[in-house]
UniProtKB/TrEMBL annotation:
This is GDP-L-fucose synthase. NADP(+) binds at residues 11-17, 106-109, 141, 164-167, 180. SUPFAM superfamilies: NAD(P)-binding Rossmann-fold domains. HAMAP family: GDP_fucose_synth. The keyword Oxidoreductase applies. Catalyzes the two-step NADP-dependent conversion of GDP-4-dehydro-6-deoxy-D-mannose to GDP-fucose, involving an epimerase and a reductase reaction. InterPro entries: Epimerase_deHydtase, GDP_fucose/colitose_synth, NAD(P)-bd_dom_sf. It is an enzyme of class 1 (oxidoreductase). It catalyses: GDP-beta-L-fucose + NADP(+) = GDP-4-dehydro-alpha-D-rhamnose + NADPH + H(+). Its EC number is 1.1.1.271. Belongs to the NAD(P)-dependent epimerase/dehydratase family. Fucose synthase subfamily. It comes from Lentisphaera profundi.
Length: 323
């Protein structure tokens, strides 16, 4: 891709999309196309078709999606499957119709079976039942992978899929009720420090193991995969199992995560683990050998990434609290 190649980022205001935009701009790409939800409704087929006819991007990063936690997935399953299928179908199909040869589809590690062996390798896709709480969302993401593979086979385009582990970082959601584990803990420990609380309660036993990846690493991996030479990509990726796991390849216990966050925030009190609350799966770790074989590994350590994320939270704390 040349610096003036037209690149469309769908979902540029989200955590991943905004990170991709920052990194592309830092790399010197100067023809990045974005549209807010108010400017372009991705659920509107005619509007998306007209946008692609007018803009004809050479490359697309498909980071737009309806996302949420367990409560959202359980409460709005129809919206999660319909909106995600609709958004990705509109973008992928119209990219093809308008000559876009390169597209990166961003998925999620929830595509893998609930009981997949750890660490989860790409070939575990469709080998078992999904986690029921986010099944509609996972099915939509699986459909996105298979849509890209099908368009590659039938139309000769080069549409690639990347599946991230648990992400955190700049522009994360710090809402007290519906944020994920790292932003939720950062906010809770910060508020405990401010109020001189003697303890912070963490759900579960602290024993489950989880993998985390800073969003800037995710953006770097997405751009790396997009720019990878076609022959090198094809040599290492099965066309019928073409998605690529993106993670650090390193996990930690929830207790270790809580202790690191306490250190980053400066909390001096006690950690109390509420064993009446559920632990969830004992381990969720991505196998990232395929990505390493292609030539990319994560660069941001968990503590370094938490420091950066906490600094961003402090700079935006007032705005986030009012949200």
């Amino acid at each position: 891709m040349s610096p003036d190649s037209k690149i469309y980022i769908a979902g540029h205001k989200g955590m991943v999309g905004s990170a991709i935009q920052r990194q592309l701009e830092a790399l010197g790409f100067n023809n990045i196309i974005t549209r807010s939800r108010q400017e372009l409704d991705l659920l509107n087929q005619a509007a998306v078709a007209e946008f692609f006819i007018q803009e004809k991007p050479a490359q697309v990063y498909l980071a737009a999606a309806k996302v949420g936690g367990i409560v959202g997935n359980n409460t709005y399953p129809a919206q999660f499957i319909y909106e995600n299928l609709t958004i990705q179908n509109h973008i992928i199909h119209n990219a093809y119709l308008n000559g876009c040869k390169k597209l990166i589809f961003l998925g999620s590690s929830c595509i893998y079976p609930k009981m997949a062996p750890q660490p989860m390798v790409e070939t575990e896709l469709l080998q078992g039942s999904l986690e029921p709480t986010n099944e509609p969302y996972a099915i939509a993401k699986i459909a996105g992978i298979k849509t890209c593979e099908s368009y590659n086979r039938q139309y000769g385009v080069d549409y690639r899929s990347v599946m991230p582990t648990n992400l955190y970082g700049t522009n994360d959601n710090f809402h007290p009720q519906n944020s994920h584990v790292i932003p939720a803990m950062l906010r809770r420990f910060h508020e405990a420090t401010e109020s001189n609380a003697s303890e912070v309660v963490v759900w579960g036993t602290g024993k489950p193991m989880r993998e985390f990846l800073h969003v800037d690493d995710m953006a770097a991996a997405s751009i790396f995969v997009a720019q990878l030479a076609h022959d090198k990509y094809e040599a290492l990726v099965d066309p019928r199992c073409s998605h690529i796991n993106v993670g650090s390849g390193i996990d930690c216990t929830i207790r270790e995560l809580a202790e690191t966050i306490a250190k980053v925030v400066g909390f001096k009190g006690d950690l109390v683990f509420d064993i009446s609350k559920p632990d969830g799966a004992p381990r969720k770790l991505m196998n990232v050998d395929r990505l390493k074989d292609l030539g990319w590994s994560s660069q941001i350590s968990l503590e370094e990434g938490l420091q950066q994320t906490y600094s961003w939270f402090l700079e935006n704390a007032l705005q986030l609290r009012e949200a």
